[in-house]
Amino acid sequence: MVKQVAERADLLPKLAQLFRSHGYEGTSLAAIAAATGLGKGSLYHFFPRGKPEMAQAVLDETAAWFARAVLGPLRHPGPPRVAIREMCRALEAHHNGGTQICAFALFAADETQTLFAAPLRTHFQQWIEALARVLVLAGRGAAAARTEAFDAVACIQGAIILARAAEDGRVFAGAVARLEARLCV
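Now predict its structure.
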């Protein structure tokens, strides 16, 4: 039985799952209607601009979670080691051990990337900058910290893709553990 939808926020988990599973182009309005139990008219009631607005809402919701769970510890760290550990645990949970791709990474790799270029760029820049600040607190020079933060984000995003391709969450978990050990030195 489909849960009754009372407000727009009720739709976001299903929309996120659809986009994360099928990409932007692969997620049709018919599939959205089937997954939510709503007709197209009801969907347009919640999202007057259609699928682009739905995708933006998913990105906004993901960004809000990311700001709390990942950027929060990085921006207001206690010891750098703790901030890095919290970042890694949050990412493992969000990506379900590497089996769920990040909506930001998915839309960045999708052919519709230009629709979401600004929020995608902002998301990754904020993450790299926040992690670089923690690495400076841990004793790295500013340039080295920025490079290491960039490499860390690239490692995490790549590990998600490899784990999904291998259908083995241990790939992601191992990459995150090795990354955490490198960053906490």
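The mean pLDDT is 91.
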